[in-house]
Amino acid sequence: ETGVTQTPRHLVMGMTNKKSLKCEQHLGHNAMYWYKQSAKKPLELMFVYNFKEQTENNSVPSRFSPECPNSSHLFLHLHTLQPEDSALYLCASSRAYEGLGNTIYFGEGSWLTVV
Amino acid sequence: EDQVTQSPEALRLQEGESSSLNCSYTVSGLRGLFWYRQDPGKGPEFLFTLYSAGEEKEKERLKATLTKKESFLHITAPKPEDSATYLCAVQAEGTALIFGKGTTLSVSS
Question: What's the number of CA atoms in the CB half-sphere (13 Å) around residue A57?
Answer without folding.
Answer: 12
